[in-house]
Specification:
elongated, 2 helices, five-stranded antiparallel β-sheet, four-stranded antiparallel β-sheet, alpha+beta, 218 residues
Length: 218
Amino acid sequence: MKRLTVAIFCVILILAAAPFNSAYAAPSKYARAKNYEAYFCNEKSETTSIFAVPYTYCVEVLREEGEWYYARYANDAGIYKAVYGYCKKEHFDVEYGTPQSTFLYKTVTVSFSAGGNPSSLPVLGEIALEAAYYGTYEAGGVYYSYVYCQGKFGYIEGKYDDYEKNLPTHTPDDSGESSEGGGSGLNVATIAFVVIASLSVVVILIIYFTTKKPRIDG
């Protein structure tokens, strides 16, 4: 019976700890590009930049490394593929809470046409493919766009920055409310843990005394 009592006690404690642990789950952290030089880089150097994060859109901050964020841009969804790299902190503003919009999802059309047209061979006309747009890259005064198309990343000529700006919808005061709300959630979880743990002790005592054999004198 004692083994059963211990088992019940362990189950109750596990159930009690669940909301407490979830309260400590770290929320996602985002940073918003505050200018057109918010580059996404392969390494912690802007010489390894691959595109500029679209102005007013966000990256998800996975960790901080000095003056850099190690971040993720985009999700593995549809024709998009998540990319991971570094962004310099000075070009981003930290978001408090999860923004209504994070990554820019914009498609562009990539066109291909066959070279040469031998009269003796049938040639396909222009082929148009849909590509996922990530951001702009400038090289030698020429603008290119970094895209993902048919399972490969690459550049196409052109600057596709005619997207709708993703301006913040909250004020700094909202961050305080959000922070305070987070604190309340932790207090509720703590209270729940204490209450359930106390009830578990009561249950154990009841089981112990109701199953305890009476002592026989003599």
